[in-house]
Specification:
- One of its GO terms (molecular function) is 4-hydroxy-tetrahydrodipicolinate synthase activity.
- It comes from Falsiroseomonas stagni DSM 19981.
- Keywords: Lyase.
- There is one protein chain.
- The protein contains 13 helices and 8 strands.
- It has 312 residues and is α/β, with parallel strands linked by helices.
- It has a single domain, classed as TIM Barrel (Alpha-Beta Barrel).
- It has an 8-stranded parallel sheet.
- α10 runs antiparallel to α12.
- It is globular, with a radius of gyration of 18 Å.
- It starts with 7 loop residues before the first strand and ends with a helix.
Length: 312
């Protein structure tokens, strides 16, 4: 897809934390800069992998402001702003716009289950109208986590009502048929479809999707960028094979603690193991299992991700 705002490889970035569970903005900004220098076209911050819903409203503002102030370009950030509260979603979206972000990723209101399409349309209509435009909204389709899916009918209604504002979707369902249906129905109107899974990157690009926003891109983005640039041929196929393998490796243990373990070992920075409950760090031999699986997948070592890089 041409002219996609976040077209390409986007990491669903981990959020660095201090021992007291507060955001470690220096380390986080350094990680974001490393990702952008090592294969990422953009970054999905404060999403599922970034533990957005473990942070409070003011903390989420502090995190975005903090990394932008430390030199991470706001134009390459897609913050998660979706909350159960309408007013929180609106205010976080306005805040992202004020920081210079071009788009935000918006969960549906996830506390009340089985809302109607009419109810979701009313919710997103309020978000758009209260935000006042000037920033693109990306729908976050992750029914396993939110229990609130986006139907094709709802997406079509939103696109018709708010052309150019409802800009795309991140589909983390793992259901490629659903991604393909969204591409077939809406890509002609400039609707950007991003896979939340690395194993679909080459396929979704070939069929008119915009790219990916994935957790494993914290470690495999350089291979994703090869796929994005080459698309087809032996080099692209080999890189896609690494993406497939790293996806399996990343899910060999609990995803977020496992990725934190990989980054901690790669940087020599123990703080990356800090995680907010109810998530817990890996224990026992799980850390070695995560490392061995990622190494076997071909993603390690992570060049340039040493202590010096993490501290800068």
């Amino acid at each position: 897809m041409k002219d996609a705002l976040f077209g390409g490889i986007n990491a669903a970035a981990l959020t660095a934390m201090n021992p007291d569970l507060s955001p470690d903005l220096d380390t986080y900004a350094a990680h974001c800069k490393w990702l952008l220098a090592n294969g990422c076209n953009g970054l999905g911050i404060l999403g599922t992998t970034g533990e957005a819903n473990s942070f409070g409203f003011n903390e989420r503002k502090e995190i975005l402001e903090g990394i932008v102030a430390r030199g991470v370009p706001a134009t390459r950030l897609m913050p998660g702003t979706g909350c159960a509260s309408l007013t929180d979603t609106v205010e976080l979206t306005k805040h992202a716009k004020a920081q210079g972000c071009r788009g935000v990723l918006v969960l549906p209101p996830f506390y009340y289950k089985a809302p109607t399409d009419d109810g979701l349309f009313a919710y997103f209509s309020e978000v758009v109208n209260r935000t006042g435009g000037g920033i693109a909204l990306y729908l976050y389709h992750f029914p396993q986590q939110s229990a609130v899916p986006f139907s094709l009918d709802l997406i079509g209604r939103l696109l018709k009502a708010f052309p150019g504002v409802i800009k795309g979707v991140k589909d983390s369902s793992g259901d490629y048929a659903n991604m393909k249906a969204m591409i077939d129905h809406f890509a002609k109107d400039g609707f950007e479809v991003y896979s939340g899974a690395d194993n679909f990157v080459q396929k979704i690009l070939a069929e008119g999707g915009a790219g990916c926003i994935t957790a494993a891109a914290n470690v495999n983005a350089r291979f994703g960028q090869i796929v994005y640039q080459k698309r087809t041929g032996p080099e692209a196929d080999a890189a896609q094979a690494v993406l497939d393998a790293t996806r399996k490796a990343a899910t060999a243990v609990a995803l977020i603690p496992g990725l934190r373990e990989i980054i901690a070992r790669s940087t020599g920075h123990d703080g990356w193991r800090v995680i907010r409950p109810p998530h817990l760090p890996l224990v026992g031999d799980e850390g070695q299992k995560a490392w061995d699986a990622m190494q076997a997948a071909g993603a390690l070592p992570l060049a340039g991700m040493g202590m010096k890089a993490a501290a800068e």
